[in-house]
What does this fold into?
Amino acid sequence: MKNGKFGCAVWGCGWVASGHINAYLKHPECAVVAIGSRRLESAQAKQREFGLDCKTCTDFRQILEDPAVDIVSICTPNDRHAEECILAAQAGKHVFLEKPAAIREEDLPRMLEAVRQAKVKTMVGFILRFNPLVKLQKKLVAEGELGKVFLANVDYWFGRERGGWMKHRENTGGAFILAGCHSVDMARWILGADIESVTAQSAMVGDYYEYPSVETAQVRFTNGAIGVFSCSLVGQVPYTANLNILGEKGTIINDKFYLKRFEGQSDFFSLDTGVKKSGDVYGHPFPAMVADFIECIQEDRESLHNLESAVNATLACLAITKSASLYGQRIHITPSGLQD
It folds into this structure.
């Protein structure tokens, strides 16, 4: 603690790190005490961006060994998340881990064990769960307004240039695990049901990425619902996160609703939750995530958005890439991992 506030450190200084830093600065019980990156100039740039008077470093150990650090945000490339999460937990730090949790199936149980042994709290950056529209959609499904849900489709399309490590297969884990994981998690979060199997296809579009930049999957949920997921990192398309949910008593298409309870309704009605669809991290509800995380730490309880809650969506994304590489072979997702 620093001056009665939680000491917060951010490791990794890419675009998403700004969302974490901004959220910590907005919380009255948080203080940013360290910013780190493998490139010192990246850490110093974030320091200047927010006008911070804090430590900068290029060695993760300096953050983990600092007694002033209570919480670590891990915002590094995907392939580094697992090991850095384990190291942070072993150092007794609470962990705000950017999505995806991991890009290798075998790392997830190691991470869970490290967190349990250390008795630290975790949060995974599935930011859409804190979107007011998603909260409303989840509430309607949970309260039975749609009746039995039998179909759930999601799309994640965002054709922007992603530089550096995001181009490389070994750093990302695949299109869905890199970006579409937001939509995968959103679907299972709203339905309140895990994904139990996927059958997928992929396509190479252009030569910018070293891996297929387009993936699609047919999925089945544990509650019997089925769906089609799609993810594209390419194409002339702005940030687009579609959600379609069909139930016996109602339908949701993004912010449009058609519910049996409203007799005489002839078409969808829309609800404006005040949130614009954007891929810009400055517009994402990171402050709400940090507020939830701090409350859970103070009350010594697990967040609904902890590492364990992120496992199924992570495995589903890994299963999509695996199924596509096996020409559409069905992959089953179990609590113990993936099964052909």
The mean pLDDT is 95. Residues 6-127+295-305 form a domain with the Rossmann fold fold (CATH 3.40.50.720). The chain has two domains: 6-127+295-305, 129-283+313-339. Residues 19 and 299 are 24 Å apart (CA to CA).
